[in-house]
Amino acid sequence: MPDNLTKLLSDAVEAPHRLPCAAAMAAHEKGVLFEYAGASEPSGIDCNSIFWLASMSKAVTATAALQLVERGVLTLDTPAGDWVPELAAPVILEGFGDNGPILRPARQAITLRDLLAHTSGHGYAFGSDALGRYVKQAGLPPRSSGTRASYNLPLLFEPGSDWHYGIGVDWAGAVIEAASGQPLDTYLEEHVLAPLGMADTGFTLDTAQAARRAPMSRRDEDGRLEPMTMLAPTTRPEFVSGGGGLYGTPRDFLCFLRMLAGGGVFEGRRILAPESVQTMQQNQIGNYRGGWITSAQPRITRDFDLLPGMAQKWGLGFAINPERSAEGRSAASVGWAGLANSYYWIDRARASCGLFMTQILPFADPEALALFRRFETTINTRLDGCADS
């Protein structure tokens, strides 16, 4: 398996305009099964290179929230407005009139569960034409500004009445700050990242870390990859994005995945109680469908369905596949992704996990998705073969 997988991955980064770089790792309860990293640039990368994790951050922030639930500081049904003033009187965007956006007060309170499960009514401008129009008409700064005001978006629906992928986990980070009395980055460092040995994961990069960043590219309409520059975040933003602001290495993030695959423990260090891990991986959205994005800004993301043809659910931090996937992922497993085309899974039945990471925009890149799915299929087939032998 390793030789075949290595060739599969190296062929992809060496061929013109397929992938600028790729890192792939997999593990089970006995340790790391496979790792690879490569780039089309001569300098190359390895599994200690720095990648923008983007929405892979969401599960890390959800882990912090569950820690505070364990301690009795929060409950999942805590009204978020009790902790964060901006969430105390949410408004719903009903449309647009001659005088601008039409807003009405929400009838339901937003809970911490809503924020983590994407049932709060929050969205992203890249996934909603209405929110994109609102941002322009309201003159909001872009989220890349790192300002708190850039997250002050109206809701798309009543809290708890639907599922829509959005900035709810960013606001969950603000709840964590208020409830813990610590900035989110400080809390995560002390209670999640440092205990897991994730020394290269954070919201800002020092000079040495910035020099280890994997190259970022954009794929144009003709399928060609062009280098793009994303400035390294060297100073802390006003509003730390718990939903998408983390940078880190594949090796670091695999430690996090192994902790969740291991029921909350990694190398003898308990991060979460088993009951909390189970709650994170249980359906939190009832009959609604999760795990999809409809693009409103094609330069940022294509339409995306993590597991096409399956009515996926959502837990607290990631999508849930209720059935066995085409890649052989066991039923009731979880996984998700990051905007720069990084993807991961945690297979509960096999106590295994894996990740595939590259750095391309727009999201849902066909080459990256195809390679991720072939990688996961190969890993799951190998694990099944070991179990049968």
TrEMBL record:
Residues 17-369 form the Beta-lactamase-related domain. Pfam families: Beta-lactamase. GO terms for molecular function: hydrolase activity. Keywords: Hydrolase. InterPro entries: Beta-lactam-related (IPR001466), Beta-lactam/transpept-like (IPR012338), Diverse_Enzym_Activities (IPR050789). It is an enzyme of class 3 (hydrolase). Its EC number is 3.-.-.-. This is Serine hydrolase domain-containing protein. It comes from Salinisphaera aquimarina.
